[in-house]
TrEMBL record:
It is an enzyme of class 4 (lyase). Its cofactor is Zn(2+). InterPro entries: DNA_glyclase_Znf_dom_DNA_BS (IPR015887), FPG_cat (IPR012319), FPG_N (IPR035937), H2TH_FPG (IPR015886), Nei2_N (IPR044090), Ribosomal_uS13-like_H2TH (IPR010979), Znf_DNA_glyclase/AP_lyase (IPR000214), Znf_FPG/IleRS (IPR010663). Residues 224-258 form the FPG-type domain. It catalyses: 2'-deoxyribonucleotide-(2'-deoxyribose 5'-phosphate)-2'-deoxyribonucleotide-DNA = a 3'-end 2'-deoxyribonucleotide-(2,3-dehydro-2,3-deoxyribose 5'-phosphate)-DNA + a 5'-end 5'-phospho-2'-deoxyribonucleoside-DNA + H(+). PANTHER family: ENDONUCLEASE 8 (PTHR42697:SF1). Its EC number is 4.2.99.18. SUPFAM superfamilies: Glucocorticoid receptor-like (DNA-binding domain) (SSF57716), N-terminal domain of MutM-like DNA repair proteins (SSF81624), S13-like H2TH domain (SSF46946). It comes from Streptomyces roseicoloratus. This is DNA-(apurinic or apyrimidinic site) lyase.
Amino acid sequence: MPEGDTVWYTAHRLDSALAGRVLTRSDLRVPRFATADLTGRRVLGVTPRGKHLLTRIEGGLTLHSHLRMDGSWRVFATGERPRGGPAHQIRAILGNEEFTAYGYRLPVLELIRTAEESTAVGHLGPDLLGPDWDPAEAVRRLSADPARTLGEALLDQRNLAGIGNVYKSELAFLAGVTPWLPVGELAEGVPERLVATAHRLLEANKDRPDRRTTTTRRGGERLYVYGRGGRPCPRCGAPVRRAELADRVTYWCPGCQKGPQQEPSR
């Protein structure tokens, strides 16, 4: 599932393949930009911003994309047959003499002025993997609405950019509280530790495709609770539960995490 670390990893693969090279192929397969032709322009760089990707192209243009749940960018040697899904799922193609990038199932794809990137990403909070990461500001935003559940506050990209459904569940587990606990009921110092842990985990995972939050390799366990509904908690052995929070699947351990509980779903 694409979260901030996945997007960072994708951006750096795209940047290595495209930056500094002139486009010899350009195909944006969305109605609004289907006639846009970027061939002959040089790619200046690909930058991640939270869960957003900004591909900057000479002439003051930026191709803005968002992966959401199942979008992806794949890079192949030019002339190589792409392998990322059926051809009809390709929404964008950017190629040069050496490499070609294919964007599959991209729910957001738009060509905007680089000077106007704020219209796409200006609402985001501090970027966990950005050069201007500001933990104090992230804590302030996360704590701004004391009545809001921790899970909702973590998912809100206006608070801190880069956390998705996996990290929401894992961070709540590591903090020892359920995702339904109001932010205002967190013990003193917990918001600061949550933000620091989020930054540490995304930094640790940004260079690898197999995300890990655990510190043990026993049994190949990479995550504490996410995706483990009905299975034993790796810490206490209690069955991990699964329920919905803000229309998103959420996992937690009733033995390790204190706070409001929910009726588990199947």
